Amino acid sequence: MIDHHATQEDFDSLHMMLQLLQTVDVGVLSVDREYQVYMWNSFMENHSGIHTNRARGCNLFDLFPELPAAWLKHKIDSVFRLQIRAYSDWKQQPHLFRFRSSQPLTGKSELMFQNITMIPLSRADKVVSRVCLLIHDVTDIATSKLALQQANKRLTCLSRTDRLTGLNNRGYWEECLHKELLRCQRGKVASLILFDIDHFKPVNDRLGHQAGDEVLRHISEIIQDSGRQTDIIGRYGGEEFGIILPDTSADKALIVAERLRRRIADARIDCGSETVRITVSLGICEYHEDLSGHHHWLELADRALYCAKRDGRNRSCLYDPEDQSCDTIQPG
Questions:
Q1: CATH number for the domain including 38?
Q2: 38 & 170 share domain
Q3: Which range marks the domain in which residue 27 is found?
């Protein structure tokens, strides 16, 4: 005997479940082992533009050729094989399905960020015959987190950067020097160059501080253009700069210093009312085992810089740890 009341309840429950499936604000689709689509809700239809009747029975990767097929097939196959859920975070695959954002006018993102949950679906005999993919729109969460990360990066950059020249400021540059010294203590080689602008005060006094600032900016551009990607450049003081040269011996650092000195001496800097030519003096010190710390390293490079100025400026001077003296190189 058929229980018509129970049948009606079952029918109503099924109807409500299907209604929920169609109205829930989550993408729902299911595929078999051949990646043929069986379930396709309104979310998928609305965001993909692919009607349900067209999606059902089609291969998922024919519907979305842009999907990372090897990666997604591996994920789906693992759910079938292990019969456990799998996940994909938006950080792994930000836009697995390239759906447009539901709030494009906010300007946060043109594409929807998604988290994906993959669930094994079994028949009555407990054999897993489908995998259900739930597509969660996490655009607001992702864009907010990315915006926060960008803001933190900008703050970090500002805290490390000299605002006038765009180089590393003294505090951060000295931190880098300390780290380089620790690296050298493990058997690496590095050299330090300190240099400053010759007769800089008269430029400020005669042409004004704006002209002085232009000189500092121009020098900074030359340093950055002349350096290697591994070099660490900083503004050490008012008109004094420092360059950390990892994996560089003293003789090679001298070549770097002389090349930089000549480029600066040949430069013509437009300071409005007139063109200025300047020179720099440079002190060089290679790391050696007798250094007590990075401040000691700075002190010896500064001693070499003082010798370069004493011996006539516009020249480089190399600190010699063997006899604790400075050897000034005549300009060539």
A1: 3.30.450.20
A2: no
A3: 4-146
What is d(CA 32, CA 59) in angstroms, rounded to the nearest whole number?
10
pLDDT at 153: 84
* Contact yes or no for 137/112 (Cβ under 8 A): yes
Q: Quote the pTM value.
A: 0.64
Between residues 148 and 272, which one has the greater pLDDT? 148
85 with 218, same domain?
no
Calculate the alpha carbon distances from 235 to 107, 195, 310 in Å. Answer: 38, 10, 22
The domain tally of the chain equals 2
pLDDT digits (tens, 9 = 90+) for 126-142: 899 999 999 999 998 99
178 shares its domain with 142: no
Give the tens place of pLDDT for each residue, 10-52.
544 544 555 556 667 899 999 999 999 999 999 999 999 999 9
What's the rounded mean pLDDT across residues 208-233? 91
pLDDT value at residue 308: 95
Residues 108 and 227 in one domain: no
DSSP secondary structure string for all residues of 34-102: T-BEEEE-HHHHHHH---HHHHTTSBHHHH-TTS-HHHHHHHHHHHHHH-S-EEE-TTTSTTSS-PBPS
Token pair of 288, please?
Answer: 């050696």
Burial class (CB in 10 A: 0-12, 13-18, 19+), 223: buried
Asked if residue 136 is part of any domain, the answer here is yes
Return d(Cα 162, Cα 233) in angstroms, integer: 11
